[in-house]
Amino acid sequence: MIKKLVIVLVYLVIILAASSNTLVFAQNIKTASENMHIPSNYTKSSAITHHFALVNGIRLHYVIAGHGKPVVLLHGWPETWYEWRHVIPSLAKNYTVIAPDLPGLGDSSKPVSGYDGKTVADDIYKLVTQLGFRQIFLVGHDWGGQVAYSYAAAHPNDVGRLVILEMPLPGIALAQVNITPGGGLWWISFHLVPNLPEKLVAGKERLYLSWFYDHAYNKTAINGADVTEYVKHYSAPGGMHAGFEYYRAIFDDISQNKQYAKTKLTMPVLALGGDHSFGNLIINSIRTVANNVRGGVVPNSSHWIPEEQPDFLIKMLENFFAGNTTNTSN
């Protein structure tokens, strides 16, 4: 009898401990959501809400808005979910829009490792599954494009339509743009150096990151308040390091992409490059890894398409998701 009583008491303690941990986690999520910073220059909408989810041991922050078929938007570097601020309200009229901060970036926690496309894609896939969705429309910009490709290659039946913006995939097209008279993508080699970039940019994050934003063709696309929003996250402890880790995983991405490319994607793919950036390289390279590709060049835009030409992008996405013609004029 005593043994049975002891077993019951131990069982109750375990249940209470688990419940306590769950409650603490839920309370932390509530507190973090309540304290979530909404940039002052952003048009607030009650339809857009902030949340956290525990995925593969990572606390992922994401925003969600709207109702309908799920559309997942994956940002690039050096940005956060906030790069989609002009796109989300329009898409949310007809779709459930989910825009996470990638692991290590924004308000998501910073894992020690796991920044390669395959691993991050699995994190996003688990998030989508937790939210109760299976087949999605998937959009990726910059490193988000690498993650989107990895996701689609690993789960081809769960991606109804794929969009790649301004991302020459490592191992597929990236080497074609690394050497130019203007210095090429010099920051890739810089970011690959272990630990040194973190030390050199410490305390100068705004100066360093602004160099990239300042190269926007549309000079009003990313203003001072927007830069402040991005720098706030990347200047936080571990912020720059996590961003650099995406570059340091590039050789894993190359190996993974070459393996993925052995089987071409069959879902419809929209590939877009800015006319003052990668241009037609994006669609031409994606055609080597997918069978059903359309798209082209976004006029009057450099790398930051969602911010430089949001109306053009929204129209392209809406047409693409609806199954309409989506080739650009170029």
How would you describe the overall organization of this protein?
With 330 residues, the protein is of the alpha/beta class. The chain has two domains: 1-35; 48-322, Alpha/Beta hydrolase fold, catalytic domain (Rossmann fold, 3-Layer(aba) Sandwich). It has helices at 2-34, 88-91, 117-130, 143-154, 186-192, 196-201, 205-213, 224-234, 239-248, 250-260, 281-286, 305-308, 310-322, and strands spanning 49-55, 58-65, 69-74, 95-100, 136-141, 159-165, 269-274, 293-298. The chain starts with a helix and ends in an 8-residue tail after the last helix.
CATH topology of the largest domain: Rossmann fold
Order of helices and strands: HEEEHEHEHEHHHHHHEHEHH
User: What gyration radius follows from the Cα positions, in whole Å?
Assistant: 21 Å
- Sheet with the most strands: spatial strand order: 1-2-4-3-5-6-7-8
Please state roughly what percent of the residues sit in beta strands, choosing from under 5%, 5-15%, 15-25%, 25-35%, 35-45% or over 45%: 15-25%
CATH architecture identity of the largest domain? 3-Layer(aba) Sandwich
Largest sheet: 8 strands, mixed
Total domain units: 2
Uncertain segments: 1-37, 39-43
Secondary-structure-derived class? alpha/beta
Q: How far is the N terminus from the C terminus? A: 82 Å
How would you name the CATH homologous superfamily of the largest domain?
Answer: Alpha/Beta hydrolase fold, catalytic domain
Count of distinct strands: 8
